[in-house]
Please model this.
Amino acid sequence: MSDPVSRATTARPSIAESFALIACGVILPLVTLGVELTTGMNAEVFFDPLPTALHVLLVALVPFANLAALASLRFGSTAHLGKLALANGCAIGVALFYAVLFLPIMPLALAGVMWFGLGLLPLTPLIALIVAIRLGWLLARAAGAVQTRARPWRGLALGIAALLALELQVTITRIGMQMATWGSPETRLQGVRLLRAVGSEDVLLRFCYVRSGVATDMVGFLFHLVHRVDPEDARKVYYQVTGTPFNAAPAPVTLRARGRFFGTDEFDLEQGGEAVGGKLRGLSLASSRLDGSLDANAALGYLEWTLVFRNEARREREARAQIALPPGALVSRLTLWMNGEEREAAFGGRVKVRQAYESVVRRNRDPALVTTAGSSRVALQIFPVPAKGEMKVRVGVTLPLALQSPREGVLGLPYFHERNFELAPGLRHAVWIESKTPLRGELARSTRVAQAHGLRADLEDERLGLPASAIVAERDGTLTAWAPDGRSSGDVVRQVLSARRGATPKRLVVVVDGSLAMREAAARVAQLLSRVPPGIPTELLVADDEVIDYTADASSSATLARRIERFDYRGGHDNVAALARGLDRAALVEDGALLWIHGPQPVLLTTVEGLLQRLERLAEPPAWYELQVQPGVNLIGEKLDGVAALVSLREPDLKRLIASWRGGTQWIAERERVKADRAGRLRAQEKTSDHLARLWANDEVALILRERHRRDEAIALARRYELVTPVSGAVVLENRQQYDAAGLEPVAAGTVPTVPEPETWALIAVVLAALAYAYRRRLFEPSAAAG
Model:
């Protein structure tokens, strides 16, 4: 009778079969695993088969289990047949799992076999499965020959169970995503709540990017065949679940860490459009400087924000951002550097400048575009930031100063609401503000520059929008100012500042966003609202999964504040329904007011048509204020741009507004354009820059837009004064032919606003005094002669 080893050799594969088993069951799976890890080819085109390190280990088990089994069979070893059978069963389970997963793309794989053999990669799980089954059969023969018990089914169950365990949260997340995007409103809400409880944020984020992705889990695979989730729907669900926009998180690992298929960079799906979109790898803000000059006595100023973008990617990129402006401010200049030369923008109707921008982007030329994106915010787009190169742009902002008292004006700095670029390591915004009167700031250092006062600071990005970054300019108490209107011959614009008691609303409806973004600000907001006078009837609506109405027990400011501070803020919520109800409530009485306090609104979960209808049909809409507590996009505000008289506030502004309701005063600037010979006495020391005329024109555009049939008149006025408004924008094109084709005229270089150089302040003061004296003599000499 032969020994056990001799009997086991009857299961030994031949040399030819051994080579085939090594090639198909060991080498091919290892090559496929390496290709996917280094290129992310399948993850980019179809789905990610290796989302975690544990997936990689389980997949790597297949070729190593095949190699161990083959080595044992070739050498006739019988010492570990039971363990080898267990490993073989596990390999069969893993290979079977992936073979079924790749089943939908098998036809494409078969067609692609002839193309450099790349079609073999999706076929690898099936090929490895066949090899593992063959080796399992040979191991069973060897074990039977030596009467050893081999249980490959245990390994099979173990391999599948391990993958299912890894995919359990993924499966639940995909089921929740299907529920949240498909079915009745009740089913969608249940899906969102399921995802908040046990969903995977990483899987949700992948849904936001992958357009053709198949699930890596079996249950998700079956759901995918029934209903494929669109990335736009996924982005809405991601916001509802997490309370943050999808592009606030780093892109999924497969889109960042691995090499790209054929070494390319990810495609920018939002290029040329109106959405900011996700952050682009390799695109960054390399430097930033804010230069400004203030005329505190005239309560106005001018800022220029110069930005340099750097692109490390291998393809051209579009830089996009939304910028928060100080309340009442407007963009009055846009320039782009081309071939080392600064080019001025053309101002025109919003539709016309966007069409010009998009047509040039399609031809990969050099445009820049600025349009409004809601109250006190603008959208900036620059293309192309060249591959391995830089692009420089400058945005000029005309602004009014907020008055704390007759002796103090306050400048709040602009900041980013949203951006598709990173910040260079260690980036600081270099701020330099000058004024003819003393300046001070908590985060800045004061200095003396020629005949002016200077203040400088190097601020981190997150500090730009903080109240502590505000700059205070001293005033001499002057309440009037004037400036010649260079765009209307013989006219001057006159401004009168007056302190008035705030118009106390007869009903205050507060709409609070119940989203996670409100959590950190809730205590501050509650403290502000605790100061609402007790005589103002107050109602509170919270935008949660459904509108929560606290009207019955929020009539006092103390109760209102307590409700806001203690609310459980989570996820992201639709604010439209609460705003519609709030508008209806505030409009029930004359002099009602709506105060909307919210976080970013990065997605529109429902249409805003109901809000638009109310605003268009109400004879006298209530006063509407909004406070956004955290930087971010506000799509609701964008849709209401130019329709609602929405007043954007920062926290200090809301504090001053509530103080005015308590009997304090608000400083109001009234501007009018009059003929110079009817303007009355114009004192030389009250003369200011033509930014006063721009502020007047911006006020006029807002008034004209209240009557929809006068839209063309508003566009013409904004274009004449070179302003970015809800109906106008600014665009920089590459050459004269492009401007002519778009029907636009770039601003003449000598008429653009600028920040004076420090050494020219003294000269300017002398020249202005001389001009004012001459102007005054010309104005009053005829009347003196007549007397």
Remarks:
- The chain has 23 helices and 28 strands.
